[in-house]
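Per reviewer request, we include the raw input and output of the structure prediction for the construct analysed in the revised manuscript.
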Amino acid sequence: MDSSTQSGRTVRGRLERQVLRLLAATNRLRLPGPSVLPVAGAVVGVYSGLAAGLFANLIALVSGVALGFPRVLNAFLPESGTREALARAFSEARWHFEYLIVGVPLGMGALVLARLIVPGGPRDEVKRRLQVLGLLVLGALSLYYPLVAVAAVNSVVGHMRGGELGFMHVQPWLVPLLPMVGGLVVGHVLRNRPETHGHGVPEVVKAVEREGWLSGRDGVLKLVASAITIGTGGSAGREGPIVFGGAAFGSAVGRTLGFTRRELAILLASGAGAGIAASFNAPIAGAIFAMEIILREFQLRVFSPIILASVTATMVGRGVMGNAAMIRRVSYSMVSGWEIVFYAVLGLVTGLLAYVFIRLLHGVEDFFHGKKPGRVSAFLGRQPLPLRAALGGLLVGCLALVHPVVWGTGHESINEAALRALPLVMLASGFALKLVATALTLGSGGSGGTFFPMTVMGALAGGAFGEVLHAAMPGITAPSGAYAMVGMGGAVAALTRGPLTGLMMVYELSGNYAIILPLMVTCTLASALCHTLVERKAGVEPHTLRRAPVRALVVWMEPVGPELRASALRERLLTAPVAALPVRDAGGRLVGVVTASTLGERWRQVGDESTVAALADQAPAVSVDTTVGEALAAMDIQLVDALPVRGEGQVGVVTRVGLERFLRREQRKLQVEPPVSATEIPR
């Protein structure tokens, strides 16, 4: 045997030893949920950005077909010059090939690492999560570049005749008919899917508070239905559907990866915030929206997945939809200190406007569902959804003949109000007609969001307020464009009861730090006023029931000791009145709970010979005087769905399901619907 052969064997032996060491290291690899959650949040953000881009292009496609498809076809004739424009659009598109350089190694590396991990025990969960994340990254790359190409085509064809500008060239007799046809189609699409009805944001909040998951199929269906509604002229926003779609995808990813209920809620919020970030090109506002409106908490552990989701969604959205700001930048500066008083009054005006809109929206919904007195409401309630939605679309089309802001999202009217391009009459009539048209579109059965129409109404109302004020006191007030921008933030803050969301959204859209002080005053007062009016109408403070003690909700039972075997523990859980048992240590002290939801997964990891000590969740015991709200907060902090309870010589548990069932039952007794959303009030 020559020296070269011997040298080759030596090299192969060293390589084999290195591979064995690598395998040994990967076999010791453990990836608990908290360490995977930020990565999953980033992936959810990528898909939310893709969904926002796809949704925007789908709206443009529907709008192009509705407003004049032959003109779009004529654009591709040789003499039209479209080919040159397309070539220029493709060369200027934001392809971001660096995504390939980063994404492909990450996705392939995750798949290769998953292949190297030897199956068995907790390693099975690691393998599955790595495989899912790797495939999701590669799948996002395969969708991104075709979507950029579609956006480039739309930038040429859709820019010529589309949206609100194309509406101005439609024959007047077609204007009422197009929303009517759109309502008819949407009614047929959604008639057998009642879970897809609504405005998007309320359903996401409800999922976070109750079920913890949404259907991905419903998310796609809602995007399609909303694109039809908006593209045919219905007065609705695109943020609600994309919030619902992003949250539904986050839910699907979380369930696939086997996350806990708490981690699922964080991923839902990440997807919702990513949808806002991509739609408005406002990553900070998207992250704050997720924490303030959807999750309703500002905890350090939720920051990383939500912020990463907003960042990746914004990056993808900019690549697909462009980097231009949605609202044209308007220079702003405070003229005098008196303006703070005027902005405070504007906060009260926008708060009242948001409350009127909410009441009108629910009133129209009740009217079309036959819940109002009178023969007309009863007649409409007996009609199928397609006919109700078509009638609502017809009425909206008639309003669009009076004012163009009614058509679609009304996006251009914000810029016109900010630039003082609309007279006082158009501003005042615009916000009133937009309010009625949005209530008709959504209340009759159309699909879309309330968030963006409220920004349009706020901008028009603020512009009208500013015009009157500036005409009366020109020396101490800024032009009306400043009041239009601040009014937009106040309206959003009032509708969502989230002052930080309204403040940061307008700040990011305006790009002017000087507008912060007026925004702080207006958003705070608008949110507080609308909240007060809503709670007064409800007749009960939503958090009152959460202050009730858990004493009457405790299920008393004998605790299990740390030495109990898994098989015996399973039998105890099967015969227990609830799917949870209190756990004591060797000294008899309550130290945690064991639940049926976590038993199966941990049993597979540690084997049949495991004991309660390896299967239980550590959780501090609470007293019978602990309030419902405090118990739910403790469960959130400990990431558990039950808590042990100490009584007078007794031991028991309270479960999340039991506490939430109590809240819903008592709210029904008071004839108050659960506060499922910051954008809905009891009817």
